[in-house]
Design brief:
By secondary structure, the protein is α+β, with helices and mostly antiparallel strands. It has 3 domains: 133 residues, 2-Layer Sandwich (Phosphorylase Kinase, domain 1); 181 residues, Transferase(Phosphotransferase), domain 1, CATH 1.10.510.10; 212 residues, no CATH class. The chain is 20% helix and 22% strand. It has 11 helices and 26 strands. The strands form 8 sheets. Strands 17, 20, 21, 23, 24, 25 and 26 form a 7-stranded antiparallel sheet that branches. A 6-stranded antiparallel sheet has the order 1-2-3-4-6-5. A hairpin with a 2-residue loop joins strand 23 and strand 24. Helix 4 runs antiparallel to helix 9. It is globular and about 80 Å long. The relative contact order is 0.13.
C-alpha cells in the first residue's frame, strides 16, 4: 500500500480514494471507499490504453467475467464504468498478501498447509469452471491469502470455455511457467489448462522456486513443453499430485474433484496456524479519509473549491456525471469481445513472439514507454537557446541500456540508468514494432510524447530529441550488428531525431516520430540519415527522451524501450 500522489484524483466515480494498491502496464489500482463505507479495490485503465480497441475489449470482458463469477473464492464486482474514459471497475477489497509475497517473506509452505491450500484452490477453480469460465492466468501473484481463505483475482484474460481462439498470431494467454504446453504449442485452452496452472502454482508454494526454473522466456517455455515441473524435495504424496496436475497430456491431468480427494484434508485451511500467520502479513487498510490522512496515505493539502477530502486535487480521472434520469442497471452478460491478452495491472498477463507484419490503420499507440522521470516543474529544464539546435551529437560514451522484463510483453522492462532530469506529467509512447495490428510498417517504430497536463510554470523553450539505441553496435556499411563487437556493450547514444520545441505548438498535442525515417547519426557536425530497420538487430532497443540545450548538451528525462525478436 502506497500513498496517493499529488496528481492522483481524490475520487473515482462516487468512490473516495484512500491509497494506492499497485500498478501495472495498463493502469493503477487504488484502495477506495464507497459512499456507504465499503472498502474497494478500484482498477483504473490508463486513458491511452482505453483508446485501444483491443485493450478496451479486454477490459470489458474482465468486467463481464468478474460480474458473472460470484464465489466465496473471488473478489466480487461492486461497480464499474465503461461508458466514458477512464474505464474502471471496483471489486470488494480483500485484505491479505498474495501467495507470491507470502512465500517470498516466509519461505515455502509446509506440506500439510500445501495440501489444505491445494484443496481450497481446487474448489475455487471448480466454482469458476461451474460458470463456464477458464481463468487462464492462475499463478501465485493472482492469489490473495485472506483471513477467510484464498481469493482468485485478475480475470483479465479469462474466457468462456467455448472461446479458445485468440485474434493475434503468436501470443499465448497466461504467464510463462504457469501456462500449459498445449496452450503454448496449439493454443488449446480448456479447464485442464487451469489444472496445470494449479499444479505449477503449488509447486512454487511448496518449494519457493519457479516451477520450471529461471532464465529467458524461451528457456522457460522450452522446459514447460519438453521438461517436467520442479518437484524436487517435496513430500512424496504432494510431489505426485503436483506432477499429475502438470502432466504434458491434458487428458492425463486429474479432475478438480480428484485433486480435492487426493489432498485428503481433515481440517479447515483458515484454522491452519501457518496459513493464519501468512494471511496476517496483509497491511491494515484505513477505514476512512481521516485514518488515511493520519497514516500519511493522502497528501496534506489545503481544502479547495473542489471539496476534495484532505486537499484540493486536480480531478484528472473523474468523468463528468450525466444529467437526467438514472440509467438502467448494467447487464454485465451483454459485454463480449474477442481481444488479445495484454499487460494487466499488477503483473504480466500475456507473452509471445510477435511477428513484424502489419498495416497502417491510424490507431493511437497502444504501448506507453516505461521509466518516465519526475521533477519539480520548472526546476530541471527549459530556458534553452532561442534557435533550436540543428542536431544532437554524442558527447561521451553512454553505457545505459533498456532491459526487457523476463516473461513480459515487448515493451515491458526498465533502463539501467535513471533519467537525469524529470518532467511532470510527461506521457511517452512506443508502438510495438512487431504488432500486426499496429500503425507502423514492418521494421519501423512509432514514438510519441506530450505533456498530459500543464502544471506549474516552465522555462521556455524546451527542446526535445529522441535517441534510439540498438542492442549492438551497427556496422554502417552492412546495417547489421558489428561482428567484431565481442562482449563490449553498445556505448553509443544511438540514432537521434532533430530537436523540436515542446512548447512550440501545443505541448498537450502528441508529437510523433518514426524510426528510422526521422532519425540519423551525427559525427563531427555531419548528419547521415539511418536506414536500419529494427529487425536487423534482435534484442532490447533503448529509447531515450533528451532535453537538449546544444548539439552536445543534453540530459535524458525519460527512458523506455522495446524488444525485437
Amino acid at each position: 500500500m502506497e500513498p496517493l500522489r499529488p496528481h492522483d484524483p481524490p475520487a473515482i466515480g462516487p468512490h473516495t480514494l484512500l491509497a494506492r494498491l499497485g500498478s501495472g502496464g495498463m493502469g493503477q489500482v487504488y484502495l477506495g471507499r464507497s459512499p456507504g463505507g465499503r472498502q474497494l479495490a478500484i482498477k483504473v485503465i490508463r486513458e491511452d490504453f482505453a483508446q485501444s480497441g483491443e485493450a478496451s475489449a479486454r477490459f470489458r470482458r474482465e468486467v463481464a467475467t468478474v460480474g458473472a463469477v460470484r464465489s466465496a473464492y473471488t473478489a466480487n464486482l461492486v461497480d464499474a464504468s465503461l461508458e466514458t474514459v477512464p474505464y474502471w471497475l471496483a471489486t470488494e477489497y480483500v485484505p491479505g498478501p498474495t501467495l507470491t509475497r507470502a512465500t517470498g517473506e516466509r519461505g515455502p509452505l509446509p506440506p500439510e498447509t500445501c495440501f489444505r491450500l491445494f484443496a481450497a484452490l481446487a474448489e475455487a477453480l471448480a466454482q469458476v469452471h461451474g460458470h463456464g469460465i477458464t481463468h487462464r492466468d492462475l499463478k501465485p501473484h493472482n492469489i490473495i491469502l485472506s483471513p477467510v481463505g484464498p481469493k482468485l483475482i485478475d480475470f483479465g484474460i479469462a474466457r468462456g470455455a467455448e472461446q479458445t481462439a485468440l485474434t493475434r498470431t503468436g501470443i499465448a494467454p497466461g504467464t510463462p511457467g504457469y501456462t500449459a504446453p498445449e496452450v503454448i504449442t496449439r493454443n488449446e485452452v480448456s479447464f485442464a489448462a487451469d489444472v496445470f496452472a494449479l499444479g505449477a502454482t503449488m509447486a512454487c508454494a511448496a518449494t519457493g522456486r519457479p516451477p520450471y526454473g529461471e532464465g529467458s522466456l524461451e528457456s522457460v517455455v522450452y522446459r514447460v513443453v519438453h521438461g517436467e515441473v520442479d518437484a524436487a524435495g517435496l513430500e512424496p504424496r504432494l510431489a505426485d499430485l503436483v506432477r499429475a496436475c502438470t502432466a504434458a497430456d491434458p487428458a492425463a491431468r486429474p479432475a478438480l474433484s480428484e485433486v480435492i480427494e487426493r489432498c485428503a484434508v481433515r481440517s479447515s485451511l483458515v484454522d491452519d496456524p501457518v496459513y493464519r500467520a501468512v494471511a496476517a502479513l496483509g497491511e491494515s487498510a484505513p477505514e476512512d479519509v481521516p485514518a488515511a490522512l493520519a497514516a500519511g496515505l493522502i497528501p496534506e493539502r489545503p481544502l479547495g473549491a473542489a471539496g476534495a477530502p484532505g486537499g484540493a486535487y486536480t480531478p484528472t480521472y473523474v468523468p463528468p456525471q450525466p444529467a437526467g434520469p438514472p440509467r438502467r442497471p448494467r447487464r454485465w452478460s451483454a459485454y463480449a469481445a474477442a481481444a488479445v491478452a495484454s499487460a494487466v495491472v499488477g503483473g504480466v498477463a500475456a507473452y509471445g513472439v510477435l511477428r513484424p507484419d502489419g498495416g497502417d490503420d491510424g490507431k493511437e499507440p497502444e504501448v506507453v514507454a516505461q521509466g518516465t522521470g519526475r521533477a519539480t516543474p520548472g526546476v530541471s529544464g527549459g530556458g534553452g537557446p532561442k534557435v533550436p539546435p540543428a542536431y544532437v551529437e554524442q558527447a561521451d560514451s553512454y553505457r545505459g541500456s533498456w532491459q526487457h522484463k523476463e516473461g513480459g510483453l515487448s515493451f515491458e522492462g526498465q533502463c539501467t540508468e535513471p533519467p537525469e532530469e524529470g518532467l511532470d506529467n510527461l506521457q511517452t509512447s512506443i508502438s510495438d514494432p512487431q504488432n500486426p495490428d499496429g500503425d507502423t510498417p514492418p521494421g519501423k517504430v512509432r514514438i510519441g510524447f506530450r505533456l498530459k497536463y500543464l502544471i506549474g510554470k516552465f522555462e521556455k523553450p524546451y527542446y526535445v530529441s529522441v535517441a534510439v539505441k540498438s542492442p549492438h553496435w551497427i556496422d554502417e556499411e552492412t546495417g547489421k550488428p558489428n561482428p567484431h563487437q565481442g562482449n563490449i556493450g553498445n556505448l553509443d547514444l544511438g540514432y537521434t531525431s532533430k530537436p523540436v520545441n515542446l512548447f512550440g505548438d501545443d505541448p498537450q498535442k502528441w508529437v510523433y516520430l518514426t524510426f528510422p525515417d526521422d532519425f540519423g547519426r551525427t559525427v563531427r557536425g555531419k548528419t547521415e540519415a539511418t536506414r536500419v530497420p529494427v529487425t536487423n538487430d534482435p534484442g532490447g532497443w533503448t529509447v531515450n527522451f533528451l532535453h537538449v540545450r546544444g548539439p552536445q548538451q543534453y540530459k535524458s528525462f525519460a527512458c523506455g524501450g522495446f524488444l525485437v525478436e
